[in-house]
Write a structure and sequence with these properties.
The structure is a homodimer of 185-residue chains.
Chain A lengths: L2 E4 L3 H13 L4 E4 L11 H16 L3 E10 L6 E2 L2 H7 L1 H8 L7 E13 L2 E13 L15 E3 L11 H7 L1 H16 L1
Parallel strand pairs in A: 1-2, 1-3
Antiparallel strand pairs in A: 3-4, 3-5, 5-6, 6-7
Chain lengths: 185, 185
């Protein structure tokens, strides 16, 4: 039986599908929106989201929430990354970073998995890196064109889905979730 | 009997108290946090917030949610104003606005009032104005030092609480709420 990934973001589903295939797991894309609480903790957003998604579907499912945390901006845009992207976008972030020497940042991802009402399992992945000085690359989505992971010269948007998944926060969180799921079954 | 205002923001309570006194209404400050949903609609945040607050207190109470919407930034920081303030702050907003000619912005406020589980009344206030080019004034809180309401040369942070309440989004939303409450009783 396919495992349901509840997300309205097609880029996320594409990445998750590639990781799931490494485990021989088939994913079903459920493009439904769910309640996102206003919290600066991704884990809490994923937890409540997974419960909401389960309440709608009544079958085992997971959600994923992620954010870009920039050190010099006190963690901005963090858990509000998607809203900030839709408004000021990558150009806004580069403008905020003008003249700032410390360009350290990290992407975090939290996967929330729910298979009955009372229980949610949370899996987290982090990738450290830095904010580029210009927009580069056209793959991926969101902040990918301005994030360079440690050990790379290219931004996430210059990597293939497979290359990105090896390094990325989302790839790590998903692999940690799916390893657990496989080991348990 | 005093009317309960559920907010962790003392500046908001101070302003509301001054408006309520115009109506001969006494306010009680309940500094409890409540669930804020991640939505870009203030009305929805106030609605769910008021229901949550009522569920905790079991007596008539209201919450207030507000945001600064900047035209040239597609409404940023909007419903996420408080998080954005805590991270990039007024200096961040001024930096994003550097070189941008259109400085139009508006403050919106939504009051949510709940007196039984199933019913929430929403009251909204708006003030139009512009973003200043520098931080000015020390009164008020949040974005007050960078917002100049239409018809004024001073920022909100250069006005007294009473002067601000006449013009402000929050003053308008609260007066609309309290007039309704008084007329109904």
């Amino acid at each position: 039986m396919a495992l349901s990934f509840v997300t309205t973001n097609e880029g996320k589903f594409r990445e998750a599908q590639q990781v799931a295939s490494e485990f021989g797991i088939e994913l079903e894309h459920v493009p439904l929106p769910y309640l996102e609480i206003q919290s600066d903790k991704l884990e809490d957003i994923a937890k409540v989201g997974a419960q909401q998604a389960y309440a709608m579907l009544k079958r085992p499912c997971f959600v994923e929430d992620s954010g870009l945390f920039i050190e010099a901006l006190k963690g901005f845009p963090g858990a509000f990354s998607s809203y900030v992207f839709k408004t000021i976008g990558n150009l806004g972030i580069l403008k905020l970073m003008e003249g700032i020497e410390n360009r350290r940042a990290e992407f975090k991802s939290s996967v929330g998995y729910c298979e009955r009402e009372t229980e949610v399992f949370i899996f987290t992945g982090i990738v450290k890196g830095r904010i580029s000085t210009e927009i580069r690359g056209e793959k991926g989505f969101g902040y990918d064109p301005i994030f360079i992971p440690d050990g790379e010269k290219r931004t996430f948007a210059e990597l293939s889905t497979q290359e990105k998944n090896v390094l990325s926060h989302r790839g790590k969180a998903l692999r940690s979730f799916l390893s657990w799921l496989v080991a348990r079954s």
